[in-house]
Structures are given as C-alpha cells and as structure tokens.
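Researcher: I've got a protein sequence and the SMILES for adenosine-5'-triphosphate. Could you write out the 3D structure of the bound complex as structure tokens? I'd like something to compare against our soaking experiments later this week.
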Amino acid sequence: METIVGIDLGTTNCSITAINEDGKTRLIKNKYGEYITPSAVYFGKEKNELLIGKEAKEKSNTDPDNLVLFVKREMGKKKDEVRGENKGFAPYHPYDFWEKNWAPEEISALILKQLKDDAEKELGTKINKAVITCPAYFGDAEKNATKQAGEIADFEVLEVIPEPTAASLSYAALTKKNESVLVFDLGGGTFDVTILKIDNSENGRTVNMIATDGDHKLGGKDWDDYIMSYMEDMFEKKWHIELYSEPRNLTSVMYGKLRIDVEKAKVALFKENTNSTAITIEYGGKKLTQEISRDLYAQKTSKLTEQCKEYCNIALKEAGMNWNDIDTILMIGSMSNCTTIQEALKGWSGKDVKFGLINPKTCVSEGAAIKAYILEGGNTVKIIENQNSHADDFEQSDEIKKEIDKEQVYGKRIEQKFNNEIKSVLSSSIGILAKKDGTSFVYKLLKKNMSYPTERKQVFRVPTDKAKVQNITVYEGESEKPENCNLLGTVELELNGKLSYGEPIEVTLIKDRNGILQVEAIHQQSGIYIKSEIKRENGLSENDVKNSANEMEELWLA
Ligand SMILES: Nc1ncnc2c1ncn2[C@@H]1O[C@H](COP(=O)(O)OP(=O)(O)OP(=O)(O)O)[C@@H](O)[C@H]1O
Ligand SMILES: [Mg+2]
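Model: Sure. Here is the predicted complex with adenosine-5'-triphosphate in place.
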C-alpha cells in the first residue's frame, strides 16, 4: 500500500496527516515547520507571487483585496453566486484574479495542492490518494465541491468524510471503551455537533454516527465579527464617528487590521492566567483602546453561544438521547479553547466537560488518515508517538494528563484495530419533486439523520399523457418548497410516449456507502428503466475539473 493522506480542509486552518503501509501515522509540517496551515490564498501581481498559508494570511494587513479567506463558506456555490459576506475583508468580491473568475473549488484546490506539496517534500515520495474532511452537515453539493477541489489538486479522493467522524476515529484510536460521544466542533467558520457511538466489535473499533446538526455560518469569524462591531460602537461613542456607515469609513486595510487584532486579542484573552486584554482601533488620527475581559467577551457573544446550545439540543433529540446518555464530550475546533464556551457547555450539559482530550487542531486530519487506511484495506493503525498530544502549542492540562494515565492508553505505543464498516448519517433530507393538487412540492424519501448506506422506494404517477420523457428532479433540504431546497440534479427517464396519465413509476433513491446518490426508476410492464448517479447540476463538469487541474499544474510549475 502506498502512503496516503488525511486532510482537514478547514475554514481558517488546515492540517495533513500521512499514514504508511504499516498503519503508522505522521502529522506533516509545512515549510515553516508548523503543523497548521492557514486557509489563505493571496494572488500577487504576477503568477509567481502566489502565496498560500501563513504568508498569504499576513497580507490582510496590507492588501486584503487580493486575498481569499474563508473560501470553505462558498463551497458548493456557483462562481456567480460567490459574493462573500465579509465587510471590508476578502472575499468581499467575486474571486476575480489574474483576469480569471475562480471557482471556490479552484481556490480550495490551491490550498490542497500546497498541503500535498508539503507532504511530498517531507516524505520524499509522491502522494496520490487522500481522504478529505468536511463539516458533518455539508450537503451533497458542498461535499461534491470538496471532492472536486481534491481532484483539481491532483488527488484521487478516496472519500470526503465528516470532520466529527474523523475526530472520533482519532479519539477511538487512543481509547478502549465502548461509549457514546458528542463531538462539539467549533471552528473558524462552522459549528458542528455530532453524536457517535464507539464500540468494540469482533472486527475492531467501530465508529458510527447517530445524529448531526450544525451551521456553516457559526464559527470563530462570527465571534470576531461581534467584537469588531462592539469596537466600532465604542469608537463611535467616544468620537462620534460612525465607522461602518455606507460608504464605509474604514478601508479594507483598516478592517483587515482590526480583524487580525481582534483575533489576536481573543487568543491572548483565553491564555491561562489571563483575564483581560486590550484592543486598539484607530481612524483619522483618533484612537480608542478598549479593555475586554472574559466576562465582557462572554456577554457580547452570548447570542452565538446560545445558538450552539440549540444545535446540541436538536442533535440530542434527533438521536433520541439526552445529556445523561452521553459518556464523553469531545471539544474540538480551536474556538473550543475559549473558556467562556467551555463553561457554557458545562452549564447546559451538567457534565464535567474536559477540554483537551485530543488535540482540537490536528485530530481531524489524523482521523481522516486512519479512515483512508481502512478504505485501502488496512485495519491495524499504529499511533507510535502521540503527535497530537503536543503539536502546535497544544498542552494538555495536568487534570487531563491524570485522566489519561488512568486509562493507560494515551501517549504510549498504541495499536488499534478498526472495523471497516463506519456508518455516517445524512445531514439533510433528500426528495423528489412531485405535484399534488397542481402544486409542486418535494417528497422526502431519505430523511435527515438516516444512517447510510440506505435506499427508499416510492411509487409516483405519470402526470402527462404519452410524454416523451419524464424528469426526475432531486432536491436536498428540510422544506417542502423546492425554492427553499438545494437542487441536486435531474435524471431524464425516456418514456417514448408509451405511458398514459396516472401510470405508476417506482422511484428509488439510493445513498451508497461512499455517499454517492443514485436514482433508479422503473415501469414494470413496459420495461422502462433507468439507474443513474446524480451529478451536481450547479457544479463543475468533469471537463472543467480536468482543465482546472491542468491549469493548476502549470501554475505550480510557473
Ligand atoms: N487559543 C485560541 N483561543 C481561542 N480561539 C482560538 C485559539 N486558537 C485559534 N482560535 C480561533 O479558532 C478559530 C479557528 O479554529 P479551527 O482552526 O478549528 O477552525 P477551522 O478548522 O479552520 O474551521 P472549520 O472547522 O469551521 O472549517 C479561529 O476563529 C481562531 O481565531
Ligand atoms: Mg475544523
């Protein structure tokens, strides 16, 4: 088996872990010797001035208009839907660079190509295959876009798996218990809550998802936005200058600087033994320095924290559980470093939440590597040195270390056998466009949080007499109204005028173990039949992906 990789393609930060034929994992360092690569792409004036990662992110202070951050939030959108929603901070505009309008998949591909490059340099071997992670509630369109980004970066993408599943695999590699785990993943751009069961079966450790919920617009960026707004309000109070009026007074460079300062202040605020930090905002020779305490931070962002609680409750309800049924809460995503969030979670759950059971920043790529290994036929994973326990400034508290010693498994030479059956659940319902009393609606066949592989059948009636073709249109979402759902694609069933009004067609929606969605339709008597994979209607075509991959390769060589 060749060396394969697992990639955590985050909204703000990425990491990559390789796994070799012996099942040995290795967290990869980038060219700065760091395990974490910021998801930032900077388009300099010339093609050889392309920057990816840390140096790109630093451009937010000087040239934010040519910088793309948070591209993950745009995944699954068409090029012309990309507008960005971040005032004064890229992407504020469509991705127009070097006289080309870039698709979100292509920007993500640049990041993935950088990670691939780093791994190849460190390991001295070519890497072809990867498992990439995405938020659990990513729908088909976003998942597909993530897969295509991997293909453009010249990976063979074995699978796109949910981040919490990956985190749980990383955790399950280090533990022995059968338990119900709630993964609380608060990252830079997204919040995911997922309930999983880890069991020991004859074939090894099994990790199965039970329910998931979340929001792709609830992450560190939003906490930062709230504090930025607070800074602007305080500035206005002091100087009577409205900074966020239209046209904006703050230039994008000032905004970029404020964002960086607010983020830095947040990280400083939640360092051990710190209770307060200061942020300075300057405009037109006027200056405000504002002290922010942990209490004030919690108060100003409580609405967002409250939203996390609501998503937890929904996921528990969907799983038919309550907090008492959860054995372990795994807090991952770097926003989980915020003690205000740790305390809030302790409050709602009534549980002794332990932050730092695994490294919140690197466990996802490690789990993705484990999954890649299992997919390629491996089963016994060896975490020789628990890199996750110390990578990227991550320090386990003494309390956690004690807990770990009790289990006597962490941080030691671990060999763990995994079962290759890992079940995921659907993050959204999937249905077929149908008509009732003249009104179109989406008839849900596969329901949210159903575990897959799965399939469901339903008989529909032909709406038109002697039609040539019947479109079977598939939507994803919780609403019955097609306009509130995502169009996944259409399959054309050839009828050739053979069927009369009202004749039955049996339609089956199939979600296979790789997450691929298929439609099967049959009219028994006439032998009319089709079975077809649903290809994303709004996405890039196979040709687009090929062309982009070639373009990317040329760019890399430039
Ligand atoms: N020590 C820290 N204390 C508080 N917040 C932090 C700390 N380190 C990073 N963050 C914040 O965590 C967020 C990034 O988290 P993370 O790296 O887990 O996100 P991500 O994986 O890129 O995002 P996502 O999983 O949403 O796609 C940023 O908002 C960052 O400011
Ligand atoms: Mg993440």
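Model: The chain has twelve helices and 29 strands. The longest strand covers residues 204-215.
Researcher: Great, I'll pass this along to the crystallography team.
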